[in-house]
Design brief:
With 118 residues, the protein is mainly α. The chain has a single domain, classed as Orthogonal Bundle (Rna Polymerase Sigma Factor, Chain: A). Helix content is 69%, strand content 0%. It is built from four helices and no strands.
Length: 118
């Protein structure tokens, strides 16, 4: 099945990440969905390597994409302030994933420390 932006347009799968980010920033949720499909396996693999509990892996991946979407929608479309998600979407998604995973790592360690003290 092909996903078309509009009649006669280029399918999402053949668009660049930068093009998809531009479309997503203008409210095209299908373009953001395509970006999620492109990056979810990499982000999941990174989370799986660093986290012990499966539910923390899933939560971290979800948190990474939600925070990425929120920042994308709040970002200055001109890229002012150095936070232009459209400049390098792969690096940008990775940054959000690292933050989410590190948050879960701290949570796992805190829980393990509390359990060890009991």
């Amino acid at each position: 099945m092909r996903l078309w932006v509009r009649r006669g347009a280029i399918p999402y799968k053949s668009r660049t990440d930068v093009d998809l980010m531009c479309l997503a920033r203008h409210g095209n949720t299908e373009a953001f969905d395509e970006l999620v499909l492109r990056y979810r396996d990499r982000i999941y693999a990174m989370a799986r390597d660093l986290l012990v509990r499966d539910e923390h892996v899933v939560d971290a991946v979800r948190e990474a994409f939600v925070s990425a979407y929120r920042e994308m929608m709040a970002a200055d479309p001109r890229g002012a302030g150095g936070k232009d998600p459209g400049a390098n979407p792969g690096r940008w998604f990775h940054r959000h994933a690292v933050r989410a995973v590190l948050s879960r790592v701290v949570q796992e360690r805190t829980t393990a420390d509390a359990a060890a003290r009991s």
